[in-house]
């Protein structure tokens, strides 16, 4: 069965974005960028893939689920289908419609959506963000891949928001990079 994998970058204090949706405060390095594009090419948005000449097959995910806040930055620059190389779902109760036929708007229960997607054949499902959506999907998350960056944000969008619901995960491996960031894989305990 397919897994729901929350692949996400976080600050030391647990934020995935700033108060205005900013995500450009994470320190990048050449070795981490090279690793991400080689190991997880599907997380690179389609319009950037073409700019950098990335023509790699999807290795881990064939579907992406994201909240409106995650989808919005693409819209702000005229990109209506940010991950055209994946099946795209935007979960939102405030977005009336999405004009791009490549992106499906889900206005209802994201748990039902994920349970249905898990039953299908294919690669895993990437939970791209945001924190409110991750909080509502916590019971369905099978794996966390957390890119921890050595920066304190001080406020913003939490990696998880919602009800207090302690959920154990077990770390399975970690990889460090020259910018002080580390990626840790966690499986549901």
TrEMBL record:
Residues 3-180 form the Bacterial bifunctional deaminase-reductase C-terminal domain. It comes from the Bacteria. InterPro entries: DHFR-like_dom_sf, RibDG_C, Riboflavin_Biosynth_HTPR. One of its GO terms (biological process) is riboflavin biosynthetic process. GO terms for molecular function: 5-amino-6-(5-phosphoribosylamino)uracil reductase activity. Pfam families: RibD_C (PF01872). This is Deaminase. It comes from Planotetraspora kaengkrachanensis. The lineage of its organism: Bacteria, Bacillati, Actinomycetota, Actinomycetes, Streptosporangiales.
């Amino acid at each position: 069965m397919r897994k729901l994998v929350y692949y996400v970058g976080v600050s030391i204090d647990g934020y995935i974005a700033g108060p205005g949706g900013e995500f450009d405060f994470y320190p990048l390095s050449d070795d981490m960028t090279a690793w991400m594009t080689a190991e997880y090419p599907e997380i690179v948005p389609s319009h950037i893939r073409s700019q950098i000449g990335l023509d790699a097959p999807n290795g881990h995910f064939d579907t992406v689920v994201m909240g409106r806040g995650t989808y919005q930055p693409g819209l702000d620059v005229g990109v209506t289908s940010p991950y055209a190389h994946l099946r795209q779902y935007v979960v939102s109760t405030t977005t009336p419609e999405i004009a791009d036929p490549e992106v499906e708007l889900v206005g209802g229960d994201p748990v039902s959506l994920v349970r249905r997607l898990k039953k299908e054949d294919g690669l895993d499902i990437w939970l791209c963000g945001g924190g409110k959506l991750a909080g509502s999907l916590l019971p369905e998350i099978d794996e966390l891949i957390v890119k921890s960056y050595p920066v304190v944000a001080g406020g913003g969008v939490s990696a998880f928001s919602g009800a207090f619901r302690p959920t154990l995960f077990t770390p399975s491996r970690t990889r460090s990079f020259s910018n002080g960031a580390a990626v840790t894989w966690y499986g549901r305990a």
